[in-house]
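We now fix the convention by which a protein and its fold are recorded. Here is one such record, which you should read through line by line:

>
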Amino acid sequence: MVPAPSDFVPAFIAAWMARDGDALGALFAEDADFVNVTGIWWRDRAAIAKAHGYALRSFFANTRLSAGTVTIRDLGDVAVIHARMALQGQTAPDGTEAGARRTIFSFVLHRRDDGWTCVSAQNTDVVPGAETHLAHGGTLTPTDYR
């Protein structure tokens, strides 16, 4: 829960940087949905907190998350946020540091009596130079038809 939609992205980043899955989960409604970059779909606050807690203690333990452009569309009792994010320091399966990633988050917030809570989130990796993915042999390959 945050006091205003403009507080959500900073609170999300603060919970991430504190490696606190419970604090991150607390930003979401009990029955919130969260779809990550690979299409994993968590369907409640507890699942969102658990998944992020695990990731923030393991392969995201040394990451730095920062926001770029953030837009907020306030629709009264609902707000839609789009936020460009940069992620650095992810640990690869072999223990090395992976390259930097850029993503765009979409968050849908709902106004409650005690503040704003996120009811839906979607994280999408930005793949430079690609307009879509091409499925072939069980693998997705970033593809550009231009």
